[in-house]
Design goal:
Largest sheet: 5 strands, parallel
Strand content: 15-25%
Shape: flat
Oligomer: single chain
Strand order of the largest sheet: 8-7-9-10-11
Number of helices: 10
CATH topology of one domain: Rossmann fold
Radius of gyration: 33 Å
CATH class of one domain: Alpha Beta
Structural class: alpha/beta
CATH architecture of one domain: 3-Layer(aba) Sandwich
């Protein structure tokens, strides 16, 4: 968009040509089957993510590469091995870099990197089985230019394990924390009850028997008595990452405004004059408590009130 506006101002393209290019930035149609929302990142700061299930490996790869060609990067989640192979081949043929996140990936156009945002997101997982879903959140966060740190295998079965990593994440300066947990799903509520940051609970479909598909973890998080815990749907790593990006980005925006306001105040504040060091005169000085002042008060004689004509008023009998 900046490139289009720059060329319009420079007179390299006409107004109609600029409008046509901006429309192409908003929506891309591929063979009448897919309509890529290319303007989503400009509107919300979060790019569109291709969901691999339900699409053939070649079709999913084509969508991801098309997005990367037009906006610098293309994201895909829930890939199978066949999807991953097709995407690797397509990215290599297009001369693009591929960043893998377990079952998710980002295809990057050469020389592209998302605009950095001065915000940080922490991710905790209860078990190693929760990492694949948490990695979806990490992919979205990194695609939006935020810093992210992830610590794994911190579940309540060994409660002492999460204290150190959580303290380190707070010291690092996380703006929001995503907590992924399957099984009983207790960890997000526990973390939310200990810190003053926004916590996003990410239920994962790991477990045994009844509730093992993530229902138990979701119910626990929804019923948590830790107030303020935000919960996304089961295995919705993309949604958790997007929510974290919005919260952390707004925190970064607030810090920028605060610094800007402080700089403006320092610039416009008047210079401080030298303090008055002249000793107080006898009239200005006050006596110590309990000691009468040396100079008696001068009484002012009462004046007779005058009328509007300057004549003294007569007292009533």
């Amino acid at each position: 968009m900046r490139d289009v506006l720059r060329r319009l101002i420079a007179g390299e393209i006409s107004e109609d040509e600029a409008v046509a290019e901006l429309r192409q930035l908003e929506l891309g149609e591929l063979s009448g089957r897919a309509r890529l929302d290319l303007g989503r990142y400009l509107r919300r700061g979060i790019p569109e993510v291709v969901l691999a299930p339900g699409k053939s490996p070649r079709e999913a790869a084509r969508l991801v590469i098309a997005m990367a060609e037009r906006q610098g990067q293309g994201l895909v989640s829930r890939m199978t091995d066949d999807h991953a192979s097709a995407l690797t081949e397509a990215a290599s043929a297009a001369g693009m870099d591929l960043v893998r996140y377990h079952s998710s990936a980002r295809a990057l156009r050469k020389g592209f990197s998302p605009e950095a945002v001065a915000a940080r997101v922490g991710i905790l997982t209860a078990g190693t089985s929760d990492v694949a879903v948490a990695d979806e959140a990490r992919m979205v966060i990194e695609a939006c230019g935020l810093e992210v740190r992830m610590e794994s295998d911190l579940g309540v079965a060994g409660l002492h394990r999460f204290v150190g990593p959580l303290a380190a994440m707070l010291e690092w300066g996380a703006d929001v924390i995503v907590v992924a947990a399957g099984m009983d799903g207790v960890l997000p509520g526990l973390v939310a009850g200990l810190i003053d940051l926004s916590v996003i609970g990410l239920p994962v479909s790991t477990g045994y028997g009844r509730g093992g598909a993530g229902e138990a973890a979701l119910t626990t998080m929804l019923q948590s008595c830790s107030t303020g815990l935000t919960v996304v749907n089961i295995d919705n790593g993309v949604g958790a990452g997007a929510a974290a990006v919005l919260i952390a980005s707004r925190a970064a925006q607030g810090r920028r405004r605060g610094r800007s306001t402080a700089m403006t105040a320092n610039t416009t504040a008047p210079a401080i004059s030298n303090p008055n060091t002249t000793p107080a005169t006898a009239r200005e000085a006050s006596a110590p408590p309990g000691i009468a002042k040396n100079r008696p008060k001068t009484r002012i004689a009462a004046r007779t009130a005058t009328s509007s004509h300057g004549k003294p008023r007569r007292r009533r009998p």
